[in-house]
Design goal:
405 residues; alpha+beta; binds flavin-adenine dinucleotide; 3-stranded antiparallel sheet; FAD/NAD(P)-binding domain
């Protein structure tokens, strides 16, 4: 999503753009997510409340967060930096930055969805946080306080009010919060593909090619070395490879302090008489259920581990069991669970802008849990910086220079 949006935005600004994609646009992380684009996502995982839940998270048995012990040791420095951001002051800076990015992105999604004739893939009537007890609802008060500070439209519903707006849920959850400021996509992969087709239809060049490394061109500009192709010389290059960005940038001496928050999904049939219409976050089961083209998609919480470590289905199995105690989830529809990695930087803010070290190199990476929704705002910010125009929102919290990139 991020790379495709950057390509679209730069093209719209009059640049000649080539998009290198080793597979198909929207084939990786941007396909497997929960499709939610919500202002409630301005609260990152490393919010001040994380300290309170840390002792239980360290037990490594829950559904919300698990970690590979060897990975945690290897990445202790990055994890410590991530935790240190869960203090009030950095949290406030991050939430303000993310809110600007999310708000701008929603507008740009609507623009690109309209241009790409992809509006039918979106609905815009919010999503729900579901609680299994009043205590659980009360414990989440600080998160709602953050939403209120930014004016995120949300309202609390009891079980009966919830059933009247989302009949498929019945009355299984005693209390819920309806976040009204939210859109949802029913097929994230198709959204990215529609945007990529718009780019190509407008004359953009999409090369199915694996970029192996980048090198400075003699004089100025960059050489893009892709497998089985002659090298290409370009004036400027944007790296937006999601979780694979650190690998390519390491070849240029840039060390990206990325953490991989892996997650899984599985599609299910639904045995209820009323379908689920909107995505819901079952906070007790630590998973999101989203109605998608391929069935009801259950997406899991976070597993901190190496990008390519073998899959572990413990969280998926646990979430499924927990959901079944409340909802008429049907059979598994996929032969294998999908696995992806949320690409996260220690302060939960993506790096968007020029490299502080290498002229002509631009970065758009590290979008943690919100890259599907914030690709378009990322691209709008990047485009304004490339053209030296006033930015649509404050670029400084996103500066790659904060990590000496
Ligand atoms: C379980 C889960 C649920 C999520 N839910 C949501 C949600 O509800 N809402 C939301 O906004 N976000 C969500 N996210 C986060 C979101 O999916 C990511 O932040 C986002 O997809 C990152 O987009 P990206 O374009 O940076 O990366 P990607 O989508 O991974 O794109 C990177 C692209 O680079 C290509 N590539 C890699 N290496 C090379 C190379 N060498 N040469 C050429 N091409 C290459 C890949 O093929 C890929 O297509 C979720 C993530 C997970 C895992």
């Amino acid at each position: 999503m991020v790379g495709v949006c950057c390509a679209l935005e730069l093209q719209a600004r009059g640049h000649r753009v080539t998009l290198f994609e080793r597979g198909e646009p929207g084939g990786e992380t941007s396909s497997g997510n929960a499709g939610v684009a919500a202002r409630s996502s301005l609260v990152p995982l490393n919010h001040p409340g994380l300290w309170q839940s840390l002792p239980s998270l360290l037990g490594n048995r829950g559904g919300a967060l698990r970690y590979g012990p060897a990975y945690a040791l290897r990445r202790a420095g990055r994890l410590a930096a991530f935790l240190l951001q869960a203090r009030q002051q950095p949290f406030e800076r991050t939430t303000a930055a993310l809110d600007a990015l999310i708000v701008h992105s929603r507008q740009r999604h609507r623009h690109w969805a309209s241009e790409a004739r992809a509006q039918h893939l979106w609905r815009s009537d919010g999503w729900f946080y579901l609680y299994r007890s009043q205590q659980a609802y009360a414990a989440a008060h600080p998160i709602r306080a953050s939403w209120s500070r930014f004016g995120v439209a949300h309202e609390t519903l009891d079980a009966h009010a919830l059933r009247s707006v989302e009949p498929g849920l019945g009355t299984a959850y005693p209390v819920a919060v309806w976040v009204r400021d939210a859109d949802a996509a029913c097929d994230p992969r198709q959204v990215v593909q529609a945007y990529a087709s718009l780019f190509v239809g407008n004359g953009g060049r999409l090369l199915q090619a694996t970029v192996q490394h980048l090198s400075p061109a003699p004089g100025q500009g960059w050489l893009v070395h892709a497998a089985d192709r002659p090298e290409e010389q370009v004036d400027e290059v944007v790296v937006a490879l999601g979780p694979w960005s650190p690998g390519l940038l390491a070849g240029l001496g840039l060390k990206v302090p990325m953490l991989y928050e892996r997650g899984y999904h599985m599609h299910y049939s639904w045995n209820g008489t009323q379908p689920l219409l909107r995505p819901v976050y079952d906070t007790g089961a630590a998973c999101v259920l989203a109605p998608m083209a391929g069935g009801l998609r259950l997406s899991t919480g976070v597993e901190l581990n190496e990008l390519d470590a073998p899959a572990s289905l413990a969280q998926l199995d646990m979430a499924e069991r927990a959901v079944r105690t409340c909802l008429p989830l049907g059979a598994r529809l996929d032969t294998q669970a999908w696995k992806g990695a949320r690409p996260t930087l220690p302060d939960s803010r993506p790096a968007i802008g020029p490299s502080a070290r290498l002229p002509g190199l631009w970065l758009a990476l590290g979008h943690q849990h919100i890259g599907f929704s914030t690709g378009p705002g990322t691209a709008a910010l990047l485009g304004s910086l490339v053209d030296g125009e006033p930015a649509p929102f404050d670029p400084s919290p996103f500066s790659p220079g904060r990590f000496r990139l």
